[in-house]
Amino acid sequence: MPKRKSKPRFTAKNSDRHDLYQRSVQAPEFEVEFFDKTFKKLRKRRPYSMREDFCGTALLCGHWVDSHKKRTALGVDIDPDVLQWGVENNLKPFGEPGNRVTLAQRDVRQVTREKFDLVNAMNFSYWIFQERAEMVRYFKAVRKSLVKDGIFFLDMYGGWESQEVMEEARKIEGGFTYVWDQHSFDPMNNVAVNYIHFRFRDGSEMKRAFKYVWRQWSMVEIRELLTEAGFKKLHIYWDVVDGSFRERKKMDNQPGWLAYIAALV
C-alpha cells in the first residue's frame, strides 16, 4: 500500500511568528561563544553580566545564563507582549538559569544603574535610530552602562546587494521557508523597508510577519559615531567564509557582507 503523506509540521495556521523567527534568524549558542572568546581575548578575563538591548523574546539572554552558573542578564525591549512571550517560551524552560534573567520594558537609550561586562545589540536592531543625534545618544547610554573594561557588541551588514529591491528565500528545518524581503530603499536618506515572510509546505503563507524600517548605516558612519560617543577602541570581525569571523582592518567590497563590532570603553 502507498505510504500516507505526512502532515506538514508547520503551517501558517498553527505556527507562532516568534518561534519561526528564532528558528530562522537567531544563533544564540554561536553568539554566546563569540562574546565569551572575544571578551577574554581583549580583556583577559571572563564576562559574567550581560545586557541585551532590543532583546525581543530574550532567547540570547537565556542561553547566556545557561552557559555559566555565575552569569546574569538583563533584557531590554519596549514591547511587553514579546517580553512575556519570552518568559513563557524561553526563560521558564531553562529552569534555574532562567531565574538569572531580568526583563525590563523600557527605552534602550536609558542609562542603567547597574553596570555590565558587556552590552549587545544584535540583528541590526539599533538601526531603528535614523538620525545621527539619536544614534550617538544611544551609544553614549550604552557606554555609561558598561563597567570600566566593558565591551559593546553589535552587528552590521552591507554590500551593494543589500540596497537592492529583492527577495531571498531560505528553507528551514521543519518544513517551512524564511523569506527576507528587501521591499524598498530610499537613497535620499538610506532608509530601507524590509519584511520577513514565512511560507509553508501546505501552500499557506504568513506574509509580513515582521516589518523593519531602518536607516542602513555604513561601517564608517557607525565607527565614527561610536568614537564620538566615547568608545576608545574598535575591533571589526568580518564574516570571511561560512560563518567564520576574523578580525580585519581592511576589506574589499562584496555583494553582501556581515560583520561584528566590539567597541571598548
TrEMBL record:
Keywords: Methyltransferase, Transferase. InterPro entries: SAM-dependent_MTases_sf (IPR029063). SUPFAM superfamilies: S-adenosyl-L-methionine-dependent methyltransferases. GO terms for biological process: methylation. GO terms for molecular function: methyltransferase activity. The keyword Methyltransferase applies. Gene3D superfamilies: S-adenosyl-L-methionine-dependent methyltransferases, Vaccinia Virus protein VP39. The keyword Transferase applies. This is Methyltransferase family protein. It comes from Marinimicrobium koreense.
